Amino acid sequence: MTRPAYPNLAWSGGEPGAVRVLGINPWITDFAAFNLWSRPVGLLACLSMVRDAGASIALMDCLDPTWEGVRWPRPGRYGTGHYPKQELEPPKALAFTGRRYSRYGLDRDMVREALAQLDPAPDAVMVSSVMTYWYPGAINALDLARELWPDAVRILGGPYATLCADHAQRHARPDLLVRGSLETPENWAQLWAALGRIAPPLPERAGLNLALDLYNDPGYAPVLGSRGCPFSCDYCASRALYPGFTQSGPGPILALMEAEQARGVRDFAFYDDALLVAPDRWLWPVLDAVSDRWPQVRLHTPNAMHVRRLTPDACGRLKRGGLTTVRLGLETTDFDLRHDVKLTRREWEDGARNLVDAGFDLADIGVYILFGLPGQDLARVEEAVRHVRGFGFRPHLAHYTPIPGSPMFEAARQASPYPIAEEPLFQNNSIWPCVPGGFDWDQAARWKALLQGLPAPGHGTAAD
């Protein structure tokens, strides 16, 4: 068999005659994209699931930098960085922006050539879809699969397929659309029926095991200790994607980390939505083990941690366990007007102080502040930015994405001048879909200066 051009592309698992399932993590199509320890965790969980049930699996990750001979932009800290990109004509719906629109990831022709060498051919192609407005990349991957393997079953899953199911069925035209988690009995049975097989028993830890071994030279790795979230934030669709909240025990997570660490991985990113909920169940034992066994490991929390749970003990454990990149969810400093009860002013100030007292570097602490909510007073956002800078932390604007299935989506639909319910491209947070007037370069420059504490363009200082 000819060695594929993409070093990760090879069949794994399964006895002779087993069904072969290829997973494709498609390109990002957007105005901007940045690799913040990105891995298609949902797709990797599905691939692990079907392999544990007897299938043979393979992966094509169009966002993976390990392709030999591909020039990748200069890496950032701890494995993060920019993607290579190819500028495209923007979709007609977004042409009004006048901004550059690109396909991020590996060259499409190279991807096609590598996939064409995959031997034997797949029986099924499973395509993920993360952001709803990235769906052009998913459609492109499905079209490529249709071209190369007309008889293969084309499967589309993920947030786009779940939250915009009617749109996905019309435009992507998959053979099977998976709404929600693959491990639900209905979805599991439908998958195997589409493959012409009787559904085997659902494997243990379905949805929590990740097929990380499909990456030959991983560089970094995700850690998934739980699925779902016990909270119900108005702007989030977590409950629509996964209505429950399931946590792992520490053993399987440590086994995964040990295997990845033995392959040279030093940077691990937590993908949990609620990392600090019930930490005794798995997080504290994992951190204790990391501290004892692998002091060289660095841990990162690209998803915001809940500040109210940052007690002195918790911060000490996180620091000793190797947490390096800290991201907090402040959201707003309108504590008296918050629509949730997750955080009070006292809890925020105590949590921030506890992090500093535990010895975390201020440069490694970032704080997410929501920007662009329906009807939001942006003057309050400025106050929050200055408040965060006053602590010495780095403020980051979390640009609001109107997500179908979230409690706030109807308010967003009424506030936005775009048909966000009919066309997912208008859900792109880069166009500021719920900010009056939409995206504006002058305002973007002003906000950038404010975040950095620099003089605002055309003004005195950012604090004036």
Automatic annotation (TrEMBL):
Cofactor field: [4Fe-4S] cluster
A Pfam family: Radical_SAM
Keyword Ribonucleoprotein: no
UniProt keyword annotations, A-Z: Iron, Iron-sulfur, Metal-binding, S-adenosyl-L-methionine
Location of the B12-binding domain: 25-202
Any Gene Ontology CC annotation: cytosol
Ranges for domain Radical SAM core: 215-440
Identification of the protein by name: Radical SAM domain protein
Origin species: Pseudodesulfovibrio aespoeensis (strain ATCC 700646 / DSM 10631 / Aspo-2)
